[in-house]
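During the second half of the funding period, the structural biology subgroup turned its attention to how the target accommodates small molecules. The most pressing case was NAP, which had performed well in the primary screen but for which no bound structure existed. We therefore specified the complex as follows and requested a full 3D prediction, including the ligand pose.
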Amino acid sequence: MGAQTNNLPWRSMWVIGASSGIGQALAELGAKRGLDVVASARRREPLEQMAESYSNLTALPLDVSDPASVSAAVDTLGVDNFPELIVFCAGTYVPGGLEVLNYESAEHHFKVNYLGAVATLDAIVPVLKKRARGHVAIVSSLTAYRGLPKAAVYGPTKAALLSLCETIKPDFDKLGLDLSVVNPGFVRTPMTDKNEFKMPFLMETEEAAEATLDGLAKKQFEVTFPAPLVRRLRFLRLLPYSLYFKAIGRISQ
Ligand SMILES: NC(=O)c1ccc[n+]([C@@H]2O[C@H](COP(=O)([O-])OP(=O)(O)OC[C@H]3O[C@@H](n4cnc5c(N)ncnc54)[C@H](OP(=O)(O)O)[C@@H]3O)[C@@H](O)[C@H]2O)c1
């Protein structure tokens, strides 16, 4: 498939976590809108299928839970042609509360969702500094706002990502680099197919990818959607614990 000319602020994008779901839709949207796209994840086959469909998309398999694998991918890309927008979208999720909480699962979630992002930053920031430009986007979640039901293992990893982004944003500013955090609500993907509860304001991956790319193009620090769910969760974030747990108790019944 050919690319359209783009009116986006970057010429190239690296999507990490691009073999399914939001990341895959984002990689395809970027390719359609004319960006040179590098698509990464562990599974080679879906990445190579996309590369066959878009002449401006390249597959670069990696495992974010292995920092050496991330560094090797960064070395492969090289400084001169390093992508201008890097979206860390890799993630893993087991739904549930206390009944699913155990050390092994929490360690795995942190290794992928949080330390995977740290390994990525560790490897790419020196390159972005050398080049003195670049935009990094980390996909967290609206679950990062407050502890939510069914997210005992996953939620803390997303809260950690949001805290990390808030903490390092001024450092990015000083370096003249852009940093964004993407906080989606519910999007229909293999990840959320596991949910047995009703997901309010569920979006399709294409809509989520459009909202992500458009928000990032405006260089927003926080890109978040869908608006009705965002409004509700922002309100819940303001409540004192006594009212918050009452509200959450009603929602989760
Ligand atoms: N769907 C939602 O409602 C929702 C809401 C809020 C936030 N999010 C976040 O959005 C991101 C994408 O999720 P999704 O819903 O699109 O789920 P998904 O379809 O399951 O996609 C997850 C992606 O992460 C990749 N990944 C997992 N472990 C990896 C590893 N060790 N190394 C490299 N890549 C790895 C997967 O590829 P491989 O398995 O091939 O490695 C896949 O491409 C996640 O960070 C998720 O937490 C999703």
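Two results from this model are relevant to the next phase. Residues 103-131 form the longest helix (29 residues). The chain has one domain: 12-251.
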